[in-house]
Amino acid sequence: MRVEEYIPLRITELCEKRGYTKYRLSQLTDMSQTALANIINQKSIPTVVTLERICEAFGITLAQFFVEDGGRLNLTEEQNEILEIWDGLETKEREIFLSFIRSLKK
Questions:
Q1: Domain limits of the chain?
Q2: In the CATH scheme, what is the code of domain 3-71?
Q3: Would you call 21 helix, strand, or coil by DSSP?
């Protein structure tokens, strides 16, 4: 698959996974809905800087954007489940989750 086809599909997939509307993604990236629509409709290809902003909104790295399943190889079923739950959390929920996990280490 060519990159100009992959990027819109991946953005759409991540929006569905996170429950983000295109409007919500535009808010998180500080991009216009038109600019995002142009990327999703394959009318434009984002720059690396723009793609990094999109990745930041999803809480992933640029490398994870281009790897299926976020590059989660050799993980147990439980580890994958934890990461799937993590992916669906909002920023505040992630902070709470991390606090809880860190408290278990003591």
A1: 3-71, 72-106
A2: 1.10.260.40
A3: coil
